[in-house]
Amino acid sequence: MRPFTSTIPLEEARRRLSAAVREITRTERVSLDHAAGRVAASNVRSPIDVPPFARSAMDGYAVAAADTAGASRTSPKRLRVVERIYSGHMPRMPVSPGECSEIATGAPMPEGADAVVMVEDTAKDSEEVVAILKAATAGQNIGRRGADILEGVAVVSSGDLLTPGRVGSLAAIGAGDVDVYERPRVAVLSTGNEVAEPGRALAPGQIYDVNRFTLAAIIGAHGGVPEAHHAVHDSIDALTGALNDCRGADLLVFSGGSSVGERDLILDLVAARGEMIFHGISIKPGKPTAFALVDGRPFFGMPGNPTSCLSNAYILLLPYLRAMARLPPFRPHTLRVPLGRRIESTANRHQIYTVRVRDGVAHPAFKGSGDITSLSNADGYIEIAEEDSVVTEGTLVLVTLF
Length: 402
What we know:
Elements: H1 10-20, E1 27-31, E2 44-45, E3 55-56, E4 60-63, E5 77-85, E6 99-103, E7 115-118, E8 122-124, E9 129-132, E10 142-143, E11 154-156, H2 164-172, E12 177-181, E13 185-190, E14 195-196, E15 207-208, H3 211-221, E16 225-228, H4 236-245, E17 251-255, H5 266-273, E18 274-279, E19 283-284, E20 290-294, E21 297-302, H6 306-324, E22 334-338, E23 343-344, E24 350-358, E25 361-364, H7 373-376, E26 380-384, E27 390-391, E28 396-401
Parallel strand pairs: 5-6, 13-16, 13-17, 14-15, 17-21, 19-24
Antiparallel strand pairs: 1-12, 2-11, 3-10, 4-6, 4-7, 5-9, 8-9, 18-20, 20-21, 22-28, 23-27, 24-25, 24-26, 26-28
């Protein structure tokens, strides 16, 4: 066995990862149907006023406010209805003194009208005459032209996350598509002679590939495009071929072969083709995690054990990928609840400990770094600082939810 030459604290690993981020620079143009969740790559200014005309904010009657002065339910003002204006249709008739137009919400205001009286404040005398039961003021119940967005105003800036609201703003100005940054392409691959593809029968000594699927799920959910590769054996030729096959990706994420066994060849190959930023973190699970630059591309060497791999993907890969994709930092939901059972932690190791939350209490869910159910049966995790060897039952703990 080859011992770790050194391990670094978790915060130092995070600092080195942050310093190594290179944001994606390629852009593409996508339709508005596929823009949500993407990051804008250019400023977008409105070519029009929104709304492009003054419009009624209520169902009612478009009037000249002066014609309604003194109107009340006991002393109504009667106006002649010259037109009915519906949404999507321009008025044909102006409103002259003593006249009004029946108008629907969102319909364009007719010339000569400067207010809208709600239908609730009117009474029909006939099809041609309406009684106004409440005086109006100029501008009442009217959405002015450009009240929402003025022509020339930026509705989206480069670097903005395209939330549903921002997508709606782009739709409001008539944009059918938008420039966005491409999603980073992430090569995902498991290594090891024992790793088999799900759906096939296991040979003696084999286990199914778990990490390729859990890693791809996280990558797809946080701004990347996972490019799955079949598992490769622990041999120089196979691993060299795998690195070469993944050269088109923006980020490489391999699992397995990052520990200190004699057959863990991938790290030797990585070091020979680039720069090892770190190998080994004072964390449990996931100590044998590595990060390097290989042929100029970032490379994560994740532990082979499924819980270690997925745990460190949440802690380290996820924030790195989001920064690379220009996405804002992930803000997971958290709960502060009492611990349901005493936990003993490994000395001098920052521990990520999975828990289930039941009836407002956090119950330990961690079984072992090789057991995927340590995570699949958990609601989230707590972090135990390396200086804390015991967390007693009843201690308030901060649970980060998955």
